[in-house]
Amino acid sequence: MRIGVSTSCLYPMLTEQAFRTLGESGVRETEIFFNAQCETNGPLLRELLAIQAHYGLHVQAVHPYFTFAESRLLFDTYRRRFLDGTEFLRQLCETALTLGSRTLILHGEKEPFHIPEEEYIERFGILAEMTEKMGATLTQENVVRFRGQDPDFLMRMHRQLGDRFAMTLDVKQAVRSGVDPLILARRFAPQIVHLHLSDHGEKGDCLPVGEGSFDFPALFRTLRDGGFQGDGVLELYRWCYDDPSELPKSAEKLSEFSNF
Fold this sequence. Notes:
Largest sheet: 8 strands, parallel
CATH architecture: Alpha-Beta Barrel
Number of domains: 1
CATH superfamily: Divalent-metal-dependent TIM barrel enzymes
Helix content: 40-55%
Mean pLDDT: 97
Strand order of the largest sheet: 3-2-1-10-7-6-5-4
Radius of gyration: 17 Å
């Protein structure tokens, strides 16, 4: 299992600067969280590719820049907008593949929900089929106050979509949803392809590794025993740690735990 650090840990630093900062810190496994469409093509994409080549960075997964708008863009009652969103996602998939990543992450529809559950799953399936044909995997993340926070809903997604269902498991989002991350790991290990990792405990629900009490070895054992074959990244909010030097240290601790 390869463990890295997401560029989102440095937000609102510009994406290319965050990518370079991770490379300079010695991190080699990454995830790119895009924050603007202009970063996905043209001069800024070329800059990301140059940084990637210089530091030998591997991009495990890519987050869309339109995460804040997925409810209205992809899962709204105005279906014509879904066609626009499909094109945006196709373009992002091309960007991900250019960077060597084959994993895309969606938050999905946020509360209050506007379309029936069956239609949500149908649309996700259409998007998953498109990315699959391009050579990538679309994943549903378990984000609080979104459809994906509910393990039973995720199970219904899996039953309806079959092999096209894939997940990104986010530890802090599970905690915020009142769900034990180990329960998600046991129920969905074969379908989980990417991890967002952070510690939690008395100090908060999104902490550098070692500042909380989460049993990472148990998580990694549960995933491996269940058939998990993916990778993961540290994902912290910028206000949850003091200095960027803590990021590679947390990633190193996670790598050690993954070998227990």
